[in-house]
Write a structure and sequence with these properties.
alpha+beta, six-stranded mixed beta sheet
Length: about 130
């Protein structure tokens, strides 16, 4: 079994992750319904668990995230399964929240879908 991600897969996964940090795609119900797996769930920076339904119900809000996503990496962890990690930097007024992010994506007949996401807060000292 070849478990390496192609350059095309890495590019698509980066584009999908970055789309989650852009208002026009993050709050687009058609886009989100397409990329969130039916059994998707997230453990947020707060430690709270968010279901697919809860994520789809989030009201549109301003997103001011650093893109390209810092320290972005993707690796295969099985046939048609990818693990993506990166750091997030999101501005809220005069403050910035930093998070270490981890996502599990699976390839379906319609493309890559997000199965799981976790955000862990950290302090950036750079």
């Amino acid at each position: 079994m070849n478990t390496l991600l192609s350059n095309e897969d890495e590019s698509v996964l980066r584009e999908l992750e970055e789309a989650l940090w852009k208002e026009d795609t993050r709050f687009n119900p058609e886009f989100m319904n397409r990329i969130l797996a039916e059994d998707f769930f997230e453990i947020g920076r707060s430690g709270r668990v968010h279901t697919r339904a809860a994520c789809l119900a989030v009201s549109k809000q301003k997103l001011d995230a650093k893109i390209p996503l810092p320290e972005w990496r993707a690796r295969s962890i099985g046939e048609d399964v990818a693990h993506v990690t990166y750091n997030s930097e999101v501005k809220f007024g005069d403050s910035i929240e930093y998070g270490r992010r981890s996502s599990i994506w699976t390839r379906s007949s319609t493309g890559w879908v997000l199965k799981f996401h976790q955000g862990t807060p950290f302090e950036n000292h750079t």
